[in-house]
Amino acid sequence: MHHDGANAFPMKHSQADICRSVLDGLQAAVLLVGPDRRVIFMNPAAEGLLETSRQRGCGRDVLDLVPMGMTLQGALISGEEGATTTLREEMLRGPLQAEAITVDCTVSPIDDGTEGPCMIVELSQVDQVARMTRETTLQENQGAFSQVARALAHEIKNPLGGIRGAAQLLDSELSDKDLREYTRIITHETDRLNGLVDRLTGGYSAGEHESFNLHAVLEHVRKLTQVENPGGLEFERDYDPSIPDIIGDHAQMTQAALNIVRNAVQAMEGQGCIRLRTRVRRQCTIHHRRHRLAIEASITDTGPGIEPDLKERIFFPMVTGRPDGTGLGLALTREIISRHGGLITCISEPGQTSFTLLLPVKEKA
Ligand SMILES: Nc1ncnc2c1ncn2[C@@H]1O[C@H](COP(=O)(O)OP(=O)(O)OP(=O)(O)O)[C@@H](O)[C@H]1O
Ligand SMILES: [Mg+2]
Asked: Which ligand is nearest to the CA of 347?
């Protein structure tokens, strides 16, 4: 039997349903702007990017909602003359956005011959795309690394146990106190190596599967950090109360957040501000998988920033900028976030360092 393209869709879906699903599913933010330059429609990606809802965004002047200086205005004028314009790597900070972002923007006119041309404004966040792709590759490398680490840990821990046992036996046989100093060193160093291997591999427990709210985790970490650092340290909270619970290991997630916050405190030498921020994200792709709902949580500090030569490597084990650091904190954090199906990214400049977690919310079966 012959099918043409349109009939391949089940009949219950109208053309409009299909268009709506396509727009809802797009990664790019799409706005439809009327001849009076007011926003008529925005898709979920646009709501996410501009941090506003369709209700709040529609009806506003597009130049207010998407402030990109003169460039967007120029593109709209070209559009009115029938030309499509693409603007590359424009800085954008909407009235409701907490931080500026870099976007590519295409303005194309559609003229249905009625009251003058409407414009389609397409926005895609550049640094996000580049960063996400890079992070996913990094994470895949890390996955391979974890497997090697696990195998290596096994190979190291078994003989370590043997060495420690033998040192203890030897210790009990030695009557010379000076010689026992050596066996004590062997025992102490094997313990240290053992602990290091445990941290390196994060113990590799399977992890609990419980339902918990990320705010409980962040609040616990905040209180703990405040007790540890009385005075000089300030916390700012910008929580989205509507974030849903996630499923995973509460204790591991607490460890992950604590590692980030401790680094921030160390970088600021206990003096400065840490901002905890949460948001709901819709329709996002994490590790090549599409999720209807995710939680974005960022931890931002006002410290001096990550040293430039460390920036690309901070998530790798044994990378540290501190004389007394082991360089395992962030490697472990990334491992934990990854076990939860999530992603961690970092942007840093002097005065503002942000670690952002993107955690998928599993749909109830
Ligand atoms: N918020 C931050 N500001 C500035 N530098 C940071 C920040 N977070 C991490 N770093 C840098 O990244 C390095 C790696 O961090 P990581 O937590 O993995 O290891 P560590 O803190 O050195 O040691 P550990 O956490 O194992 O005790 C740090 O040593 C520091 O140089
Ligand atoms: Mg650390």
From this structure: 1
Indicate which ligand has the atom closest to the C-alpha of 327.
Answer: 1
Strand partners, 212: 246
pLDDT tens digits, residue range 175-211? Answer: 998 899 899 989 988 888 887 777 666 654 556 788 9
Q: Which contacts qualify for 225-234: CB closer than 8 Å, 24 or more apart?
A: 225/258, 225/261, 225/262, 225/265, 225/274, 228/265, 229/265, 229/270, 232/270, 232/271, 232/272, 233/265, 233/268, 233/270, 233/271, 233/272, 233/273, 233/274, 234/272, 234/273, 234/274
Alpha carbons 365 and 360: distance in angstroms, whole number: 15
Angle, alpha carbons 361-330-99 (nearest 5°): 60
Q: What is the pTM of this model?
A: 0.60
* Structure-block tokens of residue 359: 């955690």
Ligand 1 shell residues, CB under 6 Å:
259, 263-264, 267, 301, 303, 305-307, 310, 314, 319-322, 325-331, 353
For residue 46, give every residue at least 6 positions away whose Cβ sits within 8 Å of its Cβ, in sequence order, or none: 29, 30, 31, 57, 123
pLDDT tens digits along 207-253:
678 899 999 999 999 998 998 898 899 999 999 999 999 999 888 89
Q: Pick from 244, 222, 208: which is nearest to 340 by CA?
A: 208
Of 152, 77, 90, 144, nearest to 117 by C-alpha is 77
- Residue 8 corresponds to which amino acid? A
- The maximal CA–CA distance of the chain, rounded, in angstroms, is 102
3-state SS class at 167: helix
Mutation probe of ligand 1 site: the residue of 263, 273, 337 with most atoms within 8 A of C-beta:
263
Please say whether the beta carbons of 280 and 240 come within 8 A: yes
